[in-house]
């Protein structure tokens, strides 16, 4: 049983180990600069020798005015190796950056700093050079371990790409500890029963990167080989001169950003064209197949695509439910399917929204 458990954990780690590109991190993080000044940032699912999250925050430590940067890795990472002997297996690390002397810091300077810490570590369990620390974790680096939870308590903001298979548990931990965060997750997480109520209560929302934008990730060669060998894994694609993994990934956050407060310009009319907004067979709501088609003169419940969250302004609309048993607004017809239907035909996942009376 223990052997099977370890094999399952290793398989899950391979599927979860998607390394985010620096360009995607830079594009999203550019919208949040005011949130980071004087703050402790934690990246608790990141190999500091591989993670572009670490390199982004290290290079921009002074520009953002960070108080501290903490980065931890997991022993199951298929990309990461042992610092001293690859045959010994993978080692979980903690890096704490308290001070950056060179400003602006470039890529080679970050690499030099890490090599200096690695050389100072030697065969010891930790090393500190100019107030910055590299240490071997006592456990496996799992974000749920007591060791990592202790680090979480120190953090003001958590920024990372957590394991998709543990996304529900990961978000719950952040919410339970009252943390601000900016993380990457699968687009389908919007309608998870553990996630959607947070969206409905405005405790979590999507980031600034459009949901339609493809996000590509660096993955292990083993993952690439496995995906290419079966000939059916369309997540492995040739992009930017190499094989990468493509995922239906988006940013989730509870940090305010300017995009979230821009009302949608409504130009359609329900009164003039009610035939363009059919009613569902099983919900007391009308169908609006595109966010841009939301009518300006309708204040009842409307079903919209989940991509509506890209344009969602809470001062203009309220989210009242989705096509699942949780978050239902009371408009579901008893004894019918929970999936939205029109004339007996299934409609893809829908969020239910209502225009605020005084919204623009």
Word description of this protein:
- It is a single chain.
- 24% of the residues lie in helices and 22% in strands.
- The strands form four sheets. A nine-stranded mixed beta sheet has the order 5-6-4-3-2-7-8-13-9, with helices on both faces.
- It is elongated and about 75 Å long.
- The protein is α+β, with helices and mostly antiparallel strands and 360 residues long.
Total separate domains? 2
- Sketch the topology as an H/E string, one letter per element: HEHHEHHEEHEEHEHEHEEHEEEEEEEEE
Please tally the helical runs, counting DSSP H or I stretches of 4 or more residues. Answer: 10
Query: Which shape, going by the Cα principal axes?
Result: elongated
End-to-end C-alpha gap: 59 Å
- Strand content is 15-25%
Question: Gyration radius, to the nearest Å?
Answer: 23 Å
Q: Would you kindly provide a brief summary of this structure?
A:
The protein is α+β, with helices and mostly antiparallel strands. The protein has helices spanning 2-16, 22-29, 33-36, 52-59, 61-64, 107-121, 146-154, 167-176, 196-200, 221-230, and strands at residues 19-20, 40-43, 68-72, 93-97, 126-129, 132-136, 157-160, 180-186, 205-206, 215-218, 236-239, 242-247, 249-253, 286-287, 301-304, 317-322, 341-342, 345-346, 351-355.
């Amino acid at each position: 049983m223990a052997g099977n458990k370890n094999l399952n954990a290793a398989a899950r780690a391979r599927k979860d180990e998607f390394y985010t590109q620096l360009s995607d991190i830079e594009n999203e993080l550019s919208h949040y600069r005011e949130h980071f000044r004087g703050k402790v940032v934690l990246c608790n699912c990141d190999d500091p020798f591989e993670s572009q999250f670490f390199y982004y925050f290290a290079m921009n430590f002074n520009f953002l005015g960070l108080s501290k940067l903490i980065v931890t890795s997991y022993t199951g990472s298929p990309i990461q190796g042992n610092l001293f002997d690859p045959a010994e297996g993978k080692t979980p690390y903690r890096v704490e950056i308290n001070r950056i002397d060179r400003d602006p810091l470039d890529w080679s300077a970050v690499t030099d700093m890490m090599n200096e810490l690695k050389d100072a570590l030697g065969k010891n369990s930790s090393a500190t050079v100019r107030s910055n620390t590299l240490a071997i974790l006592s456990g496996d680096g799992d974000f749920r371990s007591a060791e990592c939870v202790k680090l979480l308590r120190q953090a003001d903001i958590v920024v990372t790409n957590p394991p998709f298979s543990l996304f529900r548990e990961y978000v719950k931990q952040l919410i339970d500890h009252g943390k601000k965060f900016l993380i990457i997750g699968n687009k389908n997480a919007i309608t998870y029963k553990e996630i959607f109520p947070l969206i409905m209560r405005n405790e979590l929302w999507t980031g600034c990167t459009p949901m339609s934008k493809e996000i590509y990730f660096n993955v292990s060669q083993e993952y690439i080989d496995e995906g290419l060998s079966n000939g059916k894994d369309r997540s492995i694609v040739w992009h930017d001169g190499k094989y990468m993994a493509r995922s239906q990934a988006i940013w989730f956050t509870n940090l305010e950003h300017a995009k979230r407060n821009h009302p949608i310009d409504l130009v359609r009319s329900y009164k003039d064209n009610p035939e363009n907004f059919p009613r569902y067979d099983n919900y007391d709501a009308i169908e609006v197949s595109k966010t841009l088609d939301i009518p300006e003169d309708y204040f009842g419940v409307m079903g919209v695509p989940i991509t509506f969250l890209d344009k969602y302004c809470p001062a203009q609309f309220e989210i009242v439910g989705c096509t699942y048993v949780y978050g239902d607004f009371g408009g579901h017809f008893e004894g019918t399917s929970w999936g939205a239907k029109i004339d007996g035909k299934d409609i893809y996942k829908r969020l239910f929204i209502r225009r605020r009376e005084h919204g623009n």
